[in-house]
Each structure stands twice: as structure tokens, then as C-alpha cells.
Amino acid sequence: MTTRRSLITRRTLLRSAAATAAFTAAPAFAQSGSAWPDHNVRMIVPYPAGGSTDVLFRILSEKLKEKFGQAFVVENRPGASGNLGIDQVVKSTADGYTIGCATVGHFSINQFLIATMPFNAEKDLVAPALTYELPNVAVVSAKHVPATTLPEFIAWAKARPNGISIGSPGPGTTPHLSGVLFEARAGVKAVHVPFRGAAQTIPAMLSGDVNFAVDNLASYISQIEAGTMRPLAVTSAQRWPTLPNVPTMAEAGVKDFVVTSWSAYVVPKATPRAMVDRLSAAQKEFAADAALQKRFLAAGARLLSSTPEEAAAFAAKETKMWQEVVRLAGLKPQ
Questions:
Q1: SS3 track for 29-40
Q2: Has this prediction a pTM greater than 0.70?
Q3: How far apart are CA 158 and CA 1, in angstroms?
Q4: pLDDT at residue 71 is higher than 60
Q5: What homologous superfamily does CATH list for 134-234?
């Protein structure tokens, strides 16, 4: 016969079990990423404010806020060729609330130039989606350099006893390697002058302290439009839509010189797949937005999107290419 006391005990146990199940189920739901995001998200840009990576990811952060109704707060964490900021992403909690704004250097270049890397992009990170690509542009100060074409500039550079100075956002960046390649392909004598970003390189060029750069178009488009910088060539395979009168490197006489910079969102490897897929799907929507495409082109870039698997395959392909570029440039890990 069941007593009142045993009934009470049984009800108490059932309630306790139900409460325990609910308690353990809640974190599992949260960890799945299906509710992401329910509060502010950090977006770490591993370069200084004002450069192309910063400018373009700030545009994307605005779109992400509109899409998800939460703030995507950009934090600039420059240093160590961009590795410092991305290493913070690697070491962050894998919950989708810290997103890195990584570039080709983090995936495909830095490991061939830096002897001790703080992370392994393939093993430690996942890229929910590619975000954009942009060419580099060979530029000179309109005030301090008389050349109006790339062949004229090469002749001018060769006539200088001490050669030229080439500015870049730092060792291992695509502008740095593009400068090294230009020196080799054009046969000019050059000194590399590293800065912390285009925001520092540009004033140095405008003052005449630096002669030349092969840097991200997005960082220089406003100066080009203002007439203070003169574009001599773009490094894309075809002419860029917003600079139809500027030749490619090949058209300007420098062969085997096709370089584009590209970027992607990155999160720690253990981030829930549901969160990764939500960010990937959002980027696919952005890339199909005609108004946003136009805005990116005006800033010197072309919107991209991809699945995580497509991003990984693209990075692997680029890694092989850049490894060969570094070898041809004669650079060794330091």
C-alpha cells in the first residue's frame, strides 16, 4: 500500500529530476549557437584604425547589427603583423562572441615569414565565410614623384643613385610582399619602410619621405580621388571596375604580378556550428545586396561569401601560391 509520505517523496524526486534536466538542458541549448547573438559581439581588427581592414569590417559590423539586432563592436588590436589580434581570438571563449577579422596573411603568409607563430590558422580557427577581396594598387605622391606611368616610374627609380623607398603596413603583409616582388620584377633598388598601417604610410608619402607603395586600394582610394596620390597600376588580373583607366601590372609591363588581398571572419575552432552557419548565411545575404556591393566597390573592394568548407579550400590554395611567392622573394622566417 502506498503511503502519503511515499507519494510526497516520489513527487519531490520527480520535481527534482525535472529541475535538474532543465538546468542541464539550458547550457546545452546556449552552447548550440542557435540563440546567437543575444548580447554584444566583439570584432577584433588586428590592424590600426583607418586602414582597409578596419574600414571594410566596420561596414560589415553595421550590417551585422542591422541583421541580428545586437552591437558588433570593433576593437583594433594591431601588432606582430596582425598576429596579436588574431591570437586573442584563438584564446577567446568559443561561444561566438569574439570574431576575428582575419586577412590572407593570417591564413597563408605569416607562417612562412615568422619562425614562431602563436597559432596555427588551420588547426585553431574556423572561417565562417570569406568577406571581401581587393587588389593592391601601385601609387606615388602626385606632388613628389614626376612619373605618370609605371614605365616612367621604373626609369625614374633606376636613375636615382640610392634607389627608392617602398612603404608598407609591415613585414609579411601583401603590400610588403608586393613591394618585394616589384623590386625583383622591375629590377629597381629599393628600401622597405614598414609602418603600423596605411594611416601612417600615406602621410609619409605625401610629405615625400617615402616614394612608392603597392598597397590595398581601399586604403588609398580617397587619396586617389582627391588627386594627391597617382595610381600607376593595379595588381588584379583584370582592370578594376572603379579605376577603368588604370592598367594592370601586366599591361604596364610588369609580368607575373597578380596579387589580391582577401579577408574572412574567424572564430575559435570549437565554436558551435550553428553560430558559424548563421554568420556564413548573413554574409551570403550581404554579398547579394546590390547597394552594399556598390559601397564596397567605392571603397576599393569586392564583396565575397562562402561556406566554411569553401573558405578553408580557398585558404589552402592561396597558401601554396604565397609560399612560392615568399620563396621567390628570398625571404626566410625570422
A1: HHHCCCCCCCCC
A2: yes
A3: 105
A4: yes
A5: Periplasmic binding protein-like II (3.40.190.10)
